[in-house]
Amino acid sequence: MSAPWKYEAKGPVARFIHDFEENAIALMLGLMTALTFINVIRRYVFNASLIWSLEVVLTLFSWLVLFGVAYCFKVTAHLGVDAVLNMVSAPKRRLLGLLAAALTLFYAVLLAKGAWDYWAPFADLPPTTGRWLPTGLNFSARGTSYFETDQIPMPGFLRFLEDLINYGDAYSKMPRVVPYLILPISAALILLRLVQASLRIVRGETTSLIVSHEAEDAVEEVAALNRES
Whose CA is closest to 211, among 76, 75, 74? Predict the structure, then answer.
């Protein structure tokens, strides 16, 4: 059995991006944990609460999930059912991997269009036209940049958004354009990582977008490592 493909950052730029992604994921996890812990202490010890913390934690969780999807495509960490792949020969396994990559890429394009179309009005930008694939920009669409979050306070350093997208009107809470920014960013990252993963299948470096999750594979890997040590 050949060793599974494992991601390895090559070059200073790739290492910087990889470290940034891992640190961003760790930061989001840390902030979620800290905010939840602080709010529990305030509620049950001091009979008070950070009223905005729940919405911030939910936002961070959404960012973590969407950002993590792209990261897992990069390092081949997504789980999947590989029973059929293990039943066919290597050439057919590669062909099935390419088919799965093509279908997933098509879905990623749909996801990217939907993400942009949902986020763009909050940024006072035009969404795309077309039902399935983008065919242009709809400049007649009504902007919704005035929409705010429910409880998240408006940070002072984001006040420039009032003149940039809200026609000078002040925000009392953080505008939705900020937390929803993860939608187009994550969709673009997912599309990029899927293209990279598909190229690995084309080059023969791997045969699938998923990591094997069979218990026997894990046992054999551990046994091989023990024999080498």
Answer: 76
Contact by Cβ (8 Å): 198, 79: no
- The tens digit of pLDDT for each residue in 188-226 reads 999 999 999 899 888 888 777 777 555 455 556 656 766
CA distance 66 to 60: 10
Q: Where are the alpha helices (DSSP H) in the chain?
A: 12-45, 53-75, 90-119, 160-164, 182-202, 215-228
Residue 145's CB is within 10 A of a number of other CB atoms, namely 21
Decide if 5 is inside a domain.
no
Encode pLDDT of 10-50 as tens digits.
888 889 998 999 999 999 999 999 999 999 998 888 888 88
Which residue segment(s) compose the domain that 114 sits in? 12-228
Residue 7 lies in a domain: no
